[in-house]
Amino acid sequence: MLIWSKSGRFVVWAFVVPLFAIVYGLPIAVIALASISGQWNDILPSKLTLVHYANAFRSDSFDSLKASIITGAIASIAALISGTWAALALRKMKPLRKRALDLIFFVPSAVPSVSIGLGLLVAFSQPPLLLNGTRMIVLIAHFVLISAFTYGNVSAGLARLPIECEQIAESLGARPFYRLRRVTLPLLMPYLVAAFSLSFAMSMGELGATVMVYPPGWVTLPVNIFALSDRGAIFDAATLTMILGAATLIVLWGLSRLSNRSVLR
Hints:
The protein is mostly helical. The chain has eleven helices and two strands, in the order H-E-E-H-H-H-H-H-H-H-H-H-H. Helices cover about 75% and strands about 0% of the residues. The relative contact order is 0.13. This is 2-aminoethylphosphonate transport system permease protein. It is found in: Cell inner membrane; Cell membrane.
């Protein structure tokens, strides 16, 4: 849009497309090839196989996929509820107080995830809140890491809503809960879906905090991928990486269709 001449656009496309292919396409292509490789001693694999995918769905890797999806769904729902609640509550506060509370909500996004994991590990290692070795501490870690992004998305959506709709509903006698349920939340639906999608995608790929707190029997897929890579099982790790990406994209695609339907309505 900023380049008006055809020759200039051609030069830009000629530069951007190869750069995009190298930076984004090449790593994905290598991982995809590695996931179906039986042997790779040259530039390209010398033997292709689907045995890695078959093994992935027969071993503990499938349990890791379920753990990632369940953790991502629960943490994202909790973050969506709390983030929406906080954004609605802070919307009518005075600017100075709102900025201060905004800063508090965004602190987790500025702290390295490993630090979050270490903090939870220390905080919940003794009674009365002894959560180390439980699934709950993994859920809390994911919730803490994604809640700031959920709050930010919902707050941005609220700032774009036409306030006249709520004022008209109020003038017609609609009570606060009715306005929230029938006016505000339906108008916010695309932003809520976007916030949940971002939270879920971040949770599915989270490693730093999870590797610090995960208990035996609740190993998420990124932790499993890291462990396989550390042991030198690159082909198996690549297979799980493709499965993780595919599962995340399927969920995001479904949420995108839900968001489009809500907009059309």
